[in-house]
Design goal:
Blueprint (H helix, E strand, L loop, with lengths): L5 H23 L5 H13 L4 H8 L3 H13 L3 E5 L7 E5 L1 H23 L3 H19 L2
Antiparallel strand pairs: 1-2
Length: 142
C-alpha cells in the first residue's frame, strides 16, 4: 500500500479542481469570453463597483478593465454610470441581459455536472455527495 503525503494530496486536489474549473468554464460560456464571464460575475457580486474595484477583484490592470467594460457595455451586458457622490468615478451595473447571461452560464455549468453525475454508478454518486460535503467543509475552515 502506497502512503501519500499531505503535500501530494494537496497538489492533486489543486490540479483536479483547476481542471474541473476549466472544463466548467469551457462548457458554459456561450458567446462571451472567459474574461467577460468573470467580469460579469464580479459586477453582479460587488453590486455597483467602480472600475478600480473591478481591477482589484479581477486582478488585472485598469486599462484592461476599461477595454473589457467598453466591449461589454457595447454588448448590452453592463452599463456605466457616474458615481453620484464623485462624478470622476465610474460605477458599473449589470443589465438585465447581463444578469440573464450569468444565469445561463451557471445553468450550463450545473447541467454539465449533472450529466457527468448521471453517468456514474449509484455508489460513485454517493461518493460525489461525500466529496461535496468535504469540499464545503474545507471552505468553511478558512
Amino acid at each position: 500500500m502506497e502512503i501519500t503525503t499531505t503535500t501530494e494530496t494537496a497538489a492533486r486536489l489543486r490540479r483536479a479542481i483547476t481542471r474541473m474549473n476549466r472544463r466548467l468554464r469551457h462548457s458554459a460560456l456561450g458567446g462571451i469570453s472567459p474574461a467577460q464571464a468573470s467580469m460579469l460575475a464580479s459586477v453582479e457580486s460587488l453590486h455597483n463597483p467602480s472600475l478600480g474595484d473591478l481591477a482589484s477583484a479581477e486582478q488585472i490592470q485598469p486599462p484592461s478593465v476599461t477595454r473589457l467594460v467598453r466591449t461589454m457595455e457595447q454588448a448590452g451586458l453592463i452599463k456605466c454610470v457616474a458615481d453620484p457622490d464623485d462624478r470622476r468615478c465610474t460605477r458599473v451595473q449589470i443589465t438585465k441581459l447581463g444578469r440573464q447571461e450569468v444565469e445561463q452560464i451557471r445553468k450550463r455549468k450545473t447541467e454539465f455536472l449533472e450529466r457527468k453525475l448521471q453517468s456514474l454508478s449509484s455508489g460513485d454518486r454517493q461518493r460525489a455527495e461525500e466529496l461535496v460535503r468535504f469540499l464545503e467543509l474545507l471552505l468553511e475552515t478558512e
